[in-house]
Design brief:
Residues 3-237 form the DUF7847 domain. It is built from ten helices and two strands; from the N terminus they run ααααααααααββ. It is mainly α.
């Protein structure tokens, strides 16, 4: 089956505005805001005690509030945010793939430890894949190809309970014949998300210490949209959105009735 980029984007947008999606937008917003505060704190601690250009202060070089913690505290906060967002990420995939009507604890906790281990393994594998970028031009082309081919691996780990290696194999097989279209889908998403974040940054950046919240909200929504669009594309290629019939398709495209049991 060929991927329809427009349909995937349309379905993704519809999914990202449902009642189930909105709590995830809020959660993603919270994590984005805390990550922004952590980044501001990190920059502030690095600049602490250093000579700054005349007329500039630490506040001018940070995008949000600064927490009263040191670099060690910032590192710990980053780790906690990464682990916490992992649970949100897998729950988001599961909610869209399972097409649930409401959030449940099972979305966050089902085989969470196993999924976490396989996500770490996937991250290690992806790190080595990313090393191809050291080769100018050709390395970037190969990297983009591999990212596209492995597009659905995180989804397979989160929603289909695959191991890291199995998820990579399944994604490679599923994207075969559609990698150029998937690249186009990813390009459109990155372009739109980039423009939206740039506009949000320009508008909300005019309000010190508060504007970062607006940027975090936009980033949070596009995080959910990314997953929603990925699931929409996945269901296109797996045929999960195909109509269900009581028979099998014949060569002419019709439905052949299947024999049924007769009570004796």
């Amino acid at each position: 089956m060929s991927l329809k980029i427009g349909q995937a984007l349309e379905d993704g947008i519809q999914r990202s505005t449902t009642r189930v999606a909105l709590p995830f937008v809020v959660l993603a917003f919270v994590f984005q805001a805390l990550a922004s505060v952590s980044a501001s704190t990190y920059v502030a601690r690095l600049l602490q005690g250093r000579d700054l250009p005349q007329g500039m202060s630490v506040a001018d070089l940070t995008s949000g509030p600064v927490l009263p913690i040191g670099l060690g505290g910032v590192a710990l906060l980053y780790v906690l945010l990464a682990v916490g967002f992992f649970f949100v990420y897998i729950a988001l995939f599961r909610a869209f793939v399972d097409d649930v009507d409401a959030l449940t604890a099972d979305l966050f906790t089902r085989r969470a430890l196993g999924a976490f281990v396989h996500y770490v393994l996937f991250g290690v594998i992806f790190f080595f894949i990313a090393l191809v970028n050291v080769v100018p031009v050709l390395g970037q082309i190969v990297f983009i190809f591999l990212v596209t081919a492995l597009w659905f691996a995180p989804l397979r780990i989160a929603a289909e309970d695959d191991g890291a290696v199995t998820a990579l194999k399944q994604s490679w097989s599923l994207t075969s014949g559609n990698r150029l279209r998937l690249f186009g889908l990813g390009f459109v998403y990155v372009l739109v998300a980039g423009i939206a974040n740039a506009v949000a940054g320009g508008i909300f950046g005019l309000v010190p210490y508060v504007g970062f919240l607006g940027t975090a909200l936009v980033s949070g929504y596009f995080t959910v949209l990314n997953v929603a669009t990925t699931v929409a594309a996945y269901e296109q290629l797996t045929g999960d959105d195909a109509p269900v019939t009581d028979g099998t398709d014949d060569d002419a495209g019709g439905v052949t009735p299947q024999p049924t049991a007769v009570d004796s």
